[in-house]
Amino acid sequence: MAMRRIHEAEVRPTPLAGVVVSRLISDDGFPRHSHDEFGIGRIDTGGHRSWSDAGLVDATAGDLITVNPGEMHDGRPIGAAPRRWRMLHVVPERLAALAGEGRPSFGSPGR
């Protein structure tokens, strides 16, 4: 009897244009790919091994994970148990706006 694979993903918009959240639980791997957005996430349970521009990265429950726009990466579980993570995906223009890019400078410290 073949093992049943677990792969559940949910992507939801947020009130901020250019920002979506995703939730995933999976014991499956995925091939190298990239995204147009920044990704900032947290491993909730299990372990995740991925290859990226940073090299081989292992992340386990409680670890933060990140990916830059256009950065090639892949992923697979560490061990046989599924891993669960949540990600915030932010388009570069939205992140620049949230960071205040293009706004007047606050000046140098001490002024």
Q: Strands of the largest sheet, in order across it?
A: 1-2-9-4-7
Give the terminus-to-terminus CA distance: 71 Å
- What's the number of helices? 1
- What name is given to the CATH topology? Jelly Rolls
Element order, helices and strands? EEEEEEEEEH
Written overview of the protein:
With 111 residues, this protein is mainly beta. Helix content is 6%, strand content 50%. The chain contains one helix and nine strands, in the order βββββββββα. The longest helix has 7 residues. The model has no long low-confidence stretch (mean pLDDT 90). InterPro entries: AraC-bd, HTH-like. One of its GO terms (biological process) is regulation of DNA-templated transcription. Keywords: DNA-binding. GO terms for molecular function: DNA binding.
Descriptors:
AraC-bd; five-stranded antiparallel β-sheet; DNA-binding; 50% strand; AraC family ligand binding domain-containing protein; 1 helix; four-stranded antiparallel β-sheet; mainly beta; Jelly Rolls; 111 residues; globular; HTH-like; 9 strands
Summarize the structure.
With 111 residues, the protein is mainly β.
Architecture blueprint of SSEs:
Blueprint: E1 7-13, E2 19-26, E3 30-33, E4 38-45, E5 47-52, E6 55-60, E7 64-67, E8 73-77, E9 83-90, H1 92-98
Antiparallel strand pairs: 1-2, 2-9, 3-8, 4-7, 4-9, 5-6, 5-8
